[in-house]
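Note to self: the last two entries modelled the partners one at a time, which told us nothing about the interface. This time every component goes in together.
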Amino acid sequence: MIAVVGLVIGVVLGLLVQPSVPVELQPYLPIAVVAALDALFGAFRARLEGVFDDRVFVTSFLFNVVIAAFIVFLGDQLGVGSQLSTAVVVVLGIRIFSNAASIRRHVFKA
Amino acid sequence: MSPDGKDPRKREPLRSRLLIAALCVLLGFAIVAQVRHTQEDQFSSLRQDDLVRLLDEVTQRNEDLADEGEQLRRDRSALLSGSDARALAEDYAILQGILAGTEPVEGPGVVVTVRDVDGDVTAQIMVHMLEELRNAGAESVELSGQRLTASSAFEDSSLGVMVDGVLISSPYEWRAIGNAQTLAVALDIPGGALAGFRNVGATLDLQERDLVQITAIRTPQEPRFATPVPEGG
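The predicted structure of the combined assembly is written out below.
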């Protein structure tokens, strides 16, 4: 529950503050958000399976975000930034879908 | 850690729960920021390469349009000044005359003489020859004293081949004005127009000339059905 509350607070805060994304962060923020979503879905699935571990969640969340941003950064340096960010989004998207499938099986038993 | 999973929340210390909440707040904030950012400016999320390409395209398009605008302005001023308009109209009339075959013309080109003793040349082969000449860029074509234009027709008859209703007979003389070398090469390709004549046993003589004269003209028929579209219609 605390995650949902935190998410809602974050969204409300974002709507109130109306932040603008710093230029240096612009290429990395969307990828980082997707990576964080992946961690969040993974955590939800783990909680439903009863194997949730707060340390694992926090480290995977941060690690995912950092790795995703780093891969994009590396891609930019190598000149394949857009292709590599597509690759990252595809991989994370697949993980999100498989996590969502597990969650669905737990919630709906189907 | 809760391997049995009764109520895992109770076993998490306050600190890590706060940390999780903080991360989620951060995520929500980042999502909103990114969404707003994406909606604000469609170009800001593009990377440098894409922007450069986009800029190139826009610049290219801009130059094309500027060129076109310049061309149109020139046409307009040429049309506005009376003498130019007249000269333009005369140029146009000459062009039309060449295309419609109402003007005698001369220029470089080829002359192909076809001797067909057996009378095996068909309208099909003639059409093939004309098409090859046109493909090779012939601007004006005459066949045995008949000027060939867009409306010319070949017919097989019992006596031989008819062009626009006039019977022609061997030796057939093709005269075509255009780039002589291009025409000669195009006609002589394997399986091409000249091969079609040779296949039926005709003998050929192809000459590239610096000056070919085409004196035959046609009287254009008044169009019965087609009329120009009214301007501004």
